[in-house]
Structure formats: structure tokens, C-alpha cells
Amino acid sequence: MLEPDPQITCIDCGGRAFLLTAPREDGIWEAGDFVAYRCEDCLDRWDLVLDDDPASGDDPDTWG
């Protein structure tokens, strides 16, 4: 089941950024959904697109 991380690392300052976006009423997240995070340290906002392909996201070795 696809679900966004409740917390990510801010790319700007290394602080903790927390999920702002609530799921739909049915509670289901889908690939292509936009989610927003806010960093507690620098207050930057990050808008990300959920992707159900693990090879395309967090692993720097797969970045093009």
C-alpha cells in the first residue's frame, strides 16, 4: 500500500520536515498524488509527487 512518509529530511538545512497533506476521505494514497511537507527548522515547504516505483526516488544511485 502506498503511503507518504510522515517525516522527511529537509534538503536545504537537514532539519525534520513533516507531512502537511491529509489523505483523501477514503484514506487511499495513489501514485501521482501531491503531498506537502514543512521543515520545522527553516520553514521551507516541499511539494512532492508520490511514486509507487521505489527505484525512482530515494536512492541517489538511480538519479539521472
What can you see in these coordinates?
- Helices cover 0% and strands 28% of the residues.
- It is globular, with a radius of gyration of 12 Å.
- Mean pLDDT is 86; it is low at 59-64.
- The protein has one domain (7-62).
- The protein is an all-beta fold and 64 residues long.
Write the layout of secondary structure elements.
Blueprint: E1 7-9, E2 16-19, E3 34-39, E4 45-49
Antiparallel strand pairs: 1-2, 2-3, 3-4
Summarize the structure.
This protein is mainly beta. The chain contains no helices and four strands.
* Rg, alpha carbons: 12 Å
Counting DSSP E segments of at least 2 residues, the number of strands comes to: 4
Task: Point out poorly predicted stretches.
Answer: 59-64
Order of strands, widest sheet: 1-2-3-4
The DSSP helix count reads 0
Q: What is the H-and-E element order?
A: EEEE
Which descriptors would you attach to this protein?
28% strand, 64 residues, mainly beta, 4 strands, four-stranded antiparallel β-sheet, disordered C terminus
